[in-house]
Design goal:
The protein is mostly helical. The protein has 12 helices and no strands.
């Protein structure tokens, strides 16, 4: 439902961006790329939201910093590109940062933080998300090269919305049937109206981030853009402390900063 809400309230802004720019010729390569990206994107977003629900924000989110590491892995497997010395150093630093996220578990032994990662289901889910994003970030670059940074988001997320809407409608109907609710979810009163305002803010902020994301992809290399985007590793830890009052923030902030350093080395020293 939250995935659907995000796209419902982000589409108007994305469509406005599309209408303000001439629609480029849509090649078969674009539709092929979209067909590959769509299931990956849906799966990644569902896992992402699930990870945030079951684990602390300041612990789960920084594992997205593994995306550049996985990008190197996938490029090695698919393109036979090999790591440079700087690449090996960057991977080692990112791995150290992931270790430090759970450094409080070091009292259980040197492998305590590693075992804690495996015990934290949200962290495992976010690692899977990072791997999927290592694929979709490259595919997204191919998609905007086959269209444009302004048109692709509107086309892509409109298709996304059309696919997921029937699923959500069925799910909501089943929920009402089992819970006995007589009124639609969005018409239940003042509390629900507050949620609607939150949904609008969520959708608009997502739309703005998507537009900037693809515009940035069109202006520079994927690895450079992703490295700057990963400043969110540090921001998420700060939000976890300020908004959700999460503990062990010192360890997690240190780990996020170290991971960010490794990401920067991977991106700019290769």
């Amino acid at each position: 439902f939250i995935v659907w809400i995000i796209y419902t309230f982000s589409l108007p802004l994305l469509i406005v961006s599309l209408l303000r720019n001439p629609l480029p010729e849509l090649s078969p390569a674009l539709w092929k790329t979209i067909a590959i990206m769509m299931p990956l994107e849906i799966g990644a977003l569902l896992l992402y939201l699930r990870a945030l629900k079951i684990s602390p924000l300041s612990l789960a989110f920084p594992f997205l910093g593994l995306t550049p590491v996985f990008t190197i892995l996938t490029s090695f497997i698919l393109l036979e590109e090999r790591l440079s010395a700087w690449g090996i150093i960057g991977v080692a630093i990112v791995s150290l940062g992931a270790y430090l996220l759970n450094a409080r578990s070091a009292r259980e032994g040197v492998f305590g933080p590693v075992r804690n990662i495996y015990r934290e289901k949200g962290a495992i889910l976010m690692i899977i998300v990072a791997f999927i994003y290592s694929l979709t970030s490259v595919l997204g670059k191919k998609a905007i090269l086959a269209s444009s940074a302004e048109s692709f988001p509107a086309i892509y997320y409109t298709i996304f919305f059309v696919i997921i809407t029937p699923v959500v409608c069925v799910k909501i109907c089943l929920d009402y049937r089992h819970t006995g609710r007589k009124k639609p979810f969005l018409l239940l009163g003042a509390e629900q109206r507050k949620k609607i305002m939150l949904f609008i803010a969520l959708g608009l902020s997502f739309a703005v981030s998507i537009l900037f994301h693809y515009k940035a992809l069109s202006l520079t290399r994927v690895s450079y853009m992703i490295s700057v985007k990963r400043l969110s590793l540090v921001i998420s830890v700060i939000y976890g402390a300020l908004i959700f009052k999460e503990d062990a923030i010192g360890y997690r902030l240190l780990g996020a900063l170290v991971m960010l350093g490794g990401v920067l080395i991977l991106s700019f020293m290769q």
